[in-house]
Every structure is written in C-alpha cells, then in structure tokens.
Amino acid sequence: MSRWRPSAPRLACSPRVYRIVVDERVQAQLDALPAEALSAYLELRSTLETVPSSGRPLHPAKPHGVLTFVFGPHGEGLVFYLVLDFDERVEVLDVRWLG
Q: What percent of the chain has pLDDT over 90?
C-alpha cells in the first residue's frame, strides 16, 4: 500500500489482519526466549494480528501511543508495541521475559 494512495476497499466480512514487524534487536530477544515463553508469545502474536488494540496503554494519557501486553503461563512476559492502523502493521518495540 502506498502512503499516498488509499488501500483497496474491504469486504464487510473480511477480517483485518495486521502484519507484525520486529527489528534485529527484538528478534534477538525472541530467539533467547525459553520454549514456554515462545509458545505464549506466538499466541500473543495471533492476538496482535487480529486485535492489536487489545493491549494496555503504557501511558494512560496517550491511549494511541505505545501499548503493552502481558503474556506467558504466569504473566512473566511483557511486550511493548505500536499499532500503525494506516499501514495495518504492529511494530514490536521490546520483549521482556522475567521467568
């Protein structure tokens, strides 16, 4: 999609699927996750692809800024991300695992 051209119209029944984007630093964080954390992250990722706004704002006064999402069997993980609706993209900024 060009930033100067609107995207193609969608059918009312077609779900909106966001593209998840990670940079090299975040990919290294993901590669270091233990197996149970990676499994939980993959579940979270499917949520972010379909309902990215379901996270909590990092700063409540800025609900459209950085969002956070807790993940893991006991909530040991935390993801920070931005939702870019105009591009149907989720930029993962940081992944933390405290387990």
A: 76
Please classify residue 11 by burial: count the beta carbons closer than 10 Å to its beta carbon, then call 0-12 exposed, 13-18 middle and 19+ buried.
exposed
Amino acid (one-letter) located at 72: G
Q: What are 62-96's pLDDT values in tens digits?
A: 888 999 999 999 999 999 999 999 999 999 999 99
